[in-house]
Amino acid sequence: MSDDVNEFYSACDCCRTRKYKCTKEKPVCAPCLQLGLDCNYSRKASRTPLTRSNLTASENRVRDLETAIKALFPGVDIETVLSSTIRSTEQPHGNAKIATSPSNKPSTSSREASHEAETTSESLPQAADGFDWTENAVSLNELADGMAALSVNPEGAGYLGATSSVVPLRALLGREREKSQQDFSTTSWHSQSMFSDQFPTSLPFSNVSENTFIDAYFRYYHTTYPFLYEPLFRAQLHGKSPRPEGNSWTILYNAVLALGAWCIGDDDSVMDDFFYRKVARIPEESSIFESGNLAMVQALLLLSNYAQKRNRPNTGWNYLGLAVRMALSLGLHKEFPNWEITHLQREMRRRVWWGLFIFDSGASITFGRPVLLPEQGIMDARSVINIHEESLTPQTTTLPDEIPHPTPYTGLISQSRFHLATNSLHHRLISTPYPLPDELLGLNQTIESWENSIPSYFQLDSPAIHADETFLFARYRLSWRSWNLQIILFRPVVLQIAARRKQPDSNSSPETKEELACREKCIQSARATINSISDFVAIGMVSRLSTWYMLYFLFQAGLVPIICLLTDPTDPDSILWLNDIRTTRDLLSRTALTNRLAARCLTVFNRLSPVLDSAQSEDLGLGMWEGNFADEFLNEQFGGDMGAWDWENGEINWMI
Q1: Which one-letter DSSP state was computed for residue 157?
Q2: Gap between the Cα atoms of 192 and 137, Å rounded
Q3: pTM of the predicted model, to two decimals?
Q4: pLDDT, tens digit, for every residue of 470-491?
Q5: Which residues partner with 43 through β-bridges?
Q6: Running DSSP on this structure, what letter comes out for residue 640?
Q7: Residue 459 has what pLDDT?
Q8: Under 8 Å CB-to-CB from 472, ≥6 apart: which residues?
Q9: Is 198 exposed, middle or buried (0-12, 13-18, 19+ CB in 10 A)?
């Protein structure tokens, strides 16, 4: 009887999958009864012990089968057939295991088998409508954040995939996820007034006030994202130039006011949301879907970024999708060299298109979702030209030459080239099977090649960069973005090594040189990000817009040394990791004084108190590993299926 009982898992399938504490009642345990789930106790997989005799028998059987196949199908290359079959066969989810062929290096075979079984990172809600989201009255004390970094609970936040910044946080928090979401959502520093429904329908703004917000837009936002032509906008504002037909001007005007108010406001400001709500009421009067023009694309582009900055990420995603579709309908992705329009009109089409391109590409990485833009071969719109804004006017008859100096458009040009080079890399990371370490190192060469292509006048050691704070921020942000993609690229290997070292086994060989190289590159990119942000803050040119991007990149970088320190607290580099963590916390602490999103990020770091409160790395225990970190990592990063890994028994089993 006892042998029959031991054939089944003691915890039910649902509790093991979701990492609940199963009460083990039959036929239904307490968690499944409460949640209305099917309660099943699966039979344990039968595995052959790894002995010399069993391995020899398996090798002989494989040899006999190969002989039989060659006799039945002369001329067939078995390796080609096997490779094709493995790549094309859809692997089941859940607890399914993948058999591997014998090898002289069993640990390497296991890792290859596990990579074949890996799927993109998917943290699933419990209900079928769990990905549904509502952001019509979102405040900072609720689920969403525009960085997709703190949405630890997948319920109500929309789908966040493998490259989203919340992936390692979900793995670290483990089974405390629901409690963590509640803690992060009920902090004492949130503002109930933010995005409150109790707004007046009108505010006594004078023309001077609105001009202040417009000036703020062009001083802070436009210098970072130059998607408008300022002289034309101001001429239309004062009635000196015809405005676009329909509601597009009204929507664009209020989008500019909202972003301008946001740039000079703080977390308690409501003026930006007042303008945003004026935009939201326009579709009630007439549909914005029944017409399209360049001004409407510009408006939707700005609204998408504003919504994300105001922690409405999925709303911003939808604005962006509509903007892309409308841009395609206007042919912004095409050059049309024979079209007789002015040089400024042609250049504005390019600026808007490449603005859409970098926003859509960046948002896709942030949320771990596919880039839905046309492939490079379909787009023939030329790059934005690197000139000062006053060099191109409606009266320009000869296109000015590009200059070898930083301009307001250098950042846009460099970032668009970055995404052109790396969007295929992002798609590879959210595809299956997940790339092996040697492929990851090859993908990284794409990033390094792009870095080497950045012109000398846009390097951080260029005096021209330091002459203007907008150029400096654009260049720093570009470096942070590049390092962030490298962190995303190598983070799965860092977490996989961490999970493996949690349960060392005598049969497992050391990490391969490719794995260690991936881990080191991830650590280096994280440290470079942290140090670079610290340098930028020390310069003293921090604005609300730059703070948002600093938080986005800093939070993801700061999690890397935490994972490493928890894995190897006695490693020779542990003191460096501890310093990285402390630098991150210090930066968050300073920013949290005036920024609630930074305070939320700081709360996460303070939850990792065993790390932050230790004077020396040697004082660290492994308490943070409690709560099945390895299992949580596998669920987050690879859909819970690691083939040959048997975490429950604390060992690696080779299926033969």
Answers
A1: S
A2: 11
A3: 0.71
A4: 899 999 999 999 999 999 999 9
A5: 8
A6: T
A7: 94
A8: 465, 466, 536, 539, 541
A9: exposed
Q: What residue type is assigned to position 70 of the chain? A: K
What is the tens place of the pLDDT at every residue in 266-302?
888 888 989 988 887 776 556 677 788 999 999 999 9
Torsion of CA 220, 221, 223, 226, to 10 degrees: -160
Closest CA to 602 of 109, 125, 187: 187
Token pair in block for residue 148? 């997709």
Tokens representing 223 are 């210098």
Pairwise CA distance, residues 535 & 537, whole Å = 5
Q: What is 1-44's CATH topology?
A: CD2-Gal4 (4.10.240)
- 83: exposed, middle or buried (Cβ count in 10 Å: 0-12, 13-18, 19+): exposed
Q: Domain map of the chain by residue range?
A: 1-44, 207-309+312-414, 437-652
- The alpha helices in 540-625, defined as continuous H runs, are 544-567, 574-592, 596-607, 609-612
Instruction: Say how far apart CA 363 and CA 361 lie, in whole Å.
Output: 6
Length in residues, the chain? 656
In a 13 Å sphere around the CA of 358, the CA atoms on its Cβ side amount to 24
- The pLDDT score that the predictor gives to residue 17 is 77
Greater model confidence, 621 or 408: 408
Share of the chain above pLDDT 70, in %: 68
- Tell me the pLDDT band of 634, cut-offs 50, 70 and 90: very low
